[in-house]
Amino acid sequence: MKELTRVLIEFLKYFRHSCLAFDNTAETTKKFKQWIYRLEEKEMDNIDKRKIAIKIAWHYLGTPGKWGGDDFSGYDCSGFVIELLKSVGLLPSSGDWSADGLMHLFWKKKVDKPYQGCLVFYGKSKATHVEMCINDKLSIGASGVRSTTTSHAEAVKQNAYVKIRTINRRKDILVYLDPFKELK
What we know:
Elements: H1 2-22, H2 26-43, H3 49-59, E1 70-71, E2 74-75, H4 77-87, H5 99-105, E3 110-111, E4 119-123, E5 127-133, E6 138-143, H6 152-158, E7 161-166, E8 173-177
Antiparallel strand pairs: 1-2, 3-8, 4-5, 4-8, 5-6, 6-7
């Protein structure tokens, strides 16, 4: 029964993206998230959350960027990471976190170097960008999004999409944090 529930959860997540391409209202998105979250609460302890989050991340590759975006119509960097963490039950279904807010939330889960599932934060004194590491060299995130990226047309113009990039492409890495890490 647990295996069936796990498969159902994964199917519904991918099915959701197809459905939302046609009916991407806030209410539809909210209902899907609530329903899946209730199923996940019961079964997520039996699943490798890190691997599932990475698998889900790959399915968002090519999704347009959108300033303040937190659904399939477009993501900004924190909205994308929040969606991944919510999808495996690491964040509650409601909340408002920026890149800097996520950094402070997971600060006690600091690690020395990147690996699969870690979050990499960029910025000077505060985090202004966040991505999820897919291994020790590459990360996936909503890149190229600016405050002017408010539509699909702007995302295309600005090359703002969920993409894979090298982690060290920027010199302003602040910290690596592992939201999956168990604290002792």
